Amino acid sequence: MPKYSVADCSIIELDKHHSDRKGNLSVVENGQTLPFDVKRVYYIYDVPAGESRGSHAHKELKQLIVAASGSFRVTLDDGTTKRSFTLNRPYQGLCVMPGIWRDLDDFSSGAVAMVLASEIYKKEDYIRDYDMFLNFRKKD
Ligand code: T46
C-alpha cells in the first residue's frame, strides 16, 4: 500500500448534465470517474449545528465525499500536513486516499454528506485514536 499525503487528495469535478428548465444531473461511473470502484454508498445528514463527524483514518478505504446538499468543511491530515476543503457543490467530490485522518465540521443546515467508498464496511479498517494514527504513519 503506497503512503499517501494530503497532496494526493483533491477535488474531482463530476460530469454535470444541464437541462435549461429541469435542473442538473451529475454522474459517477465505475471505471470512468474515480481512481477506485464503488462498493458502498452512505450519507450523513441532520448534523446538529456545531457538531463534527469523522475523527478517524482508514487503513485501506478510498472515498469520494460530496456535499449533495448544503455545505461543510473537511480537514485532512497526513500526520505532517493538514489541508481543509469547503464542499458546497454537488458536482464536486473530495477524493480521500487511505491513511489520511479526516474531520468534518461546519455543517450548514440541511447539509448532506454523501460518501462513495471503495470497500464494504469493516470496523477493523478504522483508526480512531490519533496517537495510533501517528504510529501507523511512521510504519513502512
Ligand atoms: C468516514 C466519514 C466521512 C455502519 O454500520 N455502516 C457503515 O457503512 C458506516 C459508514 C457506519 N456504520 C455505523 C458505525 C457507527 O455506529 O454507523 C455509525 C456512525 O459511523 P461513524 O461514527 O463512523 O460516522 P462518521 O460520520 O464519523 O464517519 C463516516 C464513515 O464511517 C467514515 O468512513 O470517512 O463518515
Rg is 15 Å
Chemical compounds bound to the protein: dTDP-4-keto-6-deoxyglucose
Low-confidence regions: none
Main β-sheet description: 5 strands, antiparallel
Q: Tally the beta strands.
A: 12
What is the H-and-E element order? EEEEEEEEEEEEH
Proportion of helical residues: under 10%
- Count of discrete alpha- or pi-helical segments spanning 4 or more residues: 1
The structural class is: mainly beta
Strand order of the largest sheet: 1-9-6-11-4
What's the overall average pLDDT, rounded?
96
Q: Estimate what percentage of residues fall within beta strands.
A: 35-45%
**What is the straight-line distance between the termini?**
9 Å
- Overall outline: globular
Would you kindly provide a written description of the structure presented here, covering whatever features stand out?
By secondary structure, the protein is mainly beta. The chain has 1 helix and 12 strands, in the order ββββββββββββα. It has one helix at 130-138, and strands spanning 11-13, 15-19, 23-27, 40-45, 53-58, 63-69, 72-77, 82-87, 92-96, 101-105, 112-117, 126-127. The protein is globular and about 55 Å long. The chain binds dTDP-4-keto-6-deoxyglucose (T46). DTDP-4-keto-6-deoxyglucose (T46) is lined by residues 40, 42, 44, 53-54, 63, 65, 102, 104, 115, 121.
